[in-house]
Write a structure and sequence with these properties.
single chain; alpha+beta; four-stranded antiparallel beta sheet; three-stranded antiparallel beta sheet
Amino acid sequence: MPKTTPWEAHDPSGVVADHQGSVGLGFFRTKRHSTDEGHLKAIFPAGRVGRHGFSLLELVVVIAILGVLMSFMIPALGVLSHRSQVALDLSNLRSLQMAHYQFAIDSKGHFADAGLSHGGLENEEIAWLTMVGRYIDIDQFVRSPLDNSQHWTVPIEGTTDRFRRTSYGWNNYMSRTHSPDAAIDPLDVTDRLSRVKNPSKTVHFLHMASTGAYAGADHVHVENWWIGDSHPDAPAVLASNQVETHVVAGEEGTKTAMANYGFVDGHVQTLSFGEVYARPESNRFDPKVAGIGF
């Protein structure tokens, strides 16, 4: 029987370290820290021993794959961001619409008015911005996340002191001072809830054009959009000078341009221009005909 050392007697695993710093395994002993190169080569393929990091080719492949993935992700993120902005814009319109509705209730059904002009005299005291501002923190809602107009800080064209005050404006048929009916019979103006026959079909709030004279106004002039049957596409073009008809999607000055609209009953909706205006006898602005043909 082989003679065991004191260290082996206390090491049941058979692996011992003697007093000279060697490691014992059965009958074999090797110096600690020695390397069995043949054993390592059997485990690691040639060229792999001691290698760190990636080769240039591997890095190029990884970068190319990341580039392909990003080319798909960036447009998708852009779409998601735009959808989020559209949703927030609808929320702004709804808040303004409901605040004005509360104003009308407190005013025995009477609407506020439009007061910021597109070149003429202004009357900010009667403007809906002032009146609705009594019910909500107006500054939190009057600038749309979809609004990229420079005229918040740069004066309106042709002026030195007029700036954009709101992304949103009024259908002028709802204004007692700017309605086309006011020139005919002031008593016939739709300036109160009881005179709106179809609130869910009648546009109240909309997006003001981001450039031009109407960029600083708080209302449009719908009666100026129609030329005649000989120019059926003219309304979309003329309206785009006053309204940001493509603020959500589509091409400016076309019937398919998409924008958000607020209605007298308080609901908001994304619609194409062709869905809100066809002709004077068929549109969602003039309360006398609102909804006819739609």
